[in-house]
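Journal club side-thread
Mid-discussion, someone asked how the predicted structure for our own chain would compare to the paper's figures. Pasting it here so we can look after the session.
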Amino acid sequence: MPVDSKAKGVSRRRFLKGGAVAAGAATATVAFPQVSRAETTTLKMQASWGAKSVFSDMARQYVKRVDEMSGGRLKIDFLPAGAVVKAFQVQDACHKRVLDGAHTVTAYWYGKNKAASLFGTGPVFGCNAAQILSWIHFGGGKELYRELVQDILKLNLVGFFCMPMPTQPLGWFTEQIKSADQLKGLKYRTVGLATDIMQGIGVKVTQLPGGEIVPALERGVIEAFEFNNPTADRQFGAQDVRKTYMMGSYHQAAEFFEIIFNKDMFNGLAKEQQAILEYAAEAANTANYGYAMDLYSKDLQTLIKKDGVKVHRTPQAVMDAQLKSWDKVLEKLNKDPFFKKVVDSQKAWSQRVAFYDLMNAADYKLAYNHYFPGEITF
C-alpha cells in the first residue's frame, strides 16, 4: 500500500504538471493574438482645433487618460488642426487612414448627410446636452450613429462621444438683439443644422471653422458670429471685434465631441486597447465638463469686467422664432427615413427623460437670486 500510494502520488503530480503546461500552451496560443504586446503602440490623431484652443486642452485630457490607462503601451500623437489636413477634413483623413484618429464634432461633416448633425446640433425637445449624450449611450443613439457612418455613408470609421457642451450662445453682434427682425439679412457664421435653423429666421449663413472667423469678419464676409463658449470665443479674440454677447439659443443647445478612429486600425488593436480608447472617452467626459465649468465661468466674468463686453440674455421672441424654424426644418428633413428615425428616437427619449427632469429639478434660478440678488437681470 505505501509503495502504491507513493507511485500514485508521483503519477498524479506528473499529470497535473503536464496538464498545467499543456493548458498554459493552449492559453498562450489562443489568447496571445488578442492581448497587447509589451511594445508601445502609437496612434496619430488630429483635432479640428488650434493648438492653443481650450478644445485641444480637452482632447489632451482624453490622450492623457488613454496613456495612463494603458500603462504607457498605447499612446496618441496629438496634432492640432492643419498639421496634416484642414479642420473640416479630418473625417476623410481617418477613413483613408491618413490619420488614425480625430477629435472633432459631427456638425463639421453634416454636408455628407444632414442626419450627422443630430449627433451634435439637433432639435431641442426639452433635453439638455447631458441627457442627449445619455440617449447616445443608452437610448439607441450609438447604434444609429454606427448605421449612419458605416452602413449609409460606407465610412471605415468607429466613433465615441464625450463632453455634453453647455448651450452655445447666440453669439457676437454690434448691438443688443431685442427681436428676431434684427437678425433678418444679417451675415452670420455657424455650422451644422444650425445653418438651416438660422436661415429659417432670415439670417444669411456662412459655415467656417473657428480659426477663420475673425479674418472673415475683417473682410466683411460675415457681420456677426457664434462659435461655442466664453473661453473659446475669447481665445480667438471675439471681444476685440465685437462688444455685444448674446447668451442662450436653440441653434446649438446639445453638442458633443466626436472621437473617431479608422475602423481597420481599431479592429487590429488588442481588445483591451479598444476598450481603453472607448472608455477613456467616458473618463474624459467628466474631466472635460469640470474643466469647462471652471474656465467658461471665469472667462465670462473677464469678458464683462476686463474686456468691456455687454452680455445680454437672448430674448424669448428670438428663441420662439428658432423653435418655429426647427419645426419647418424637421418637416422637410423628416422626409428622409433615416433622419426621421433618429429624430423620432430622440423625441421619444426626450418626452420621457425631460419630463422626469423638469418635474423633479429644483428651481436653481430662484436659489441663485436668493443668495445673489441683483446679479441676474432677466
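Post-session note: The longest strand covers residues 41-47.
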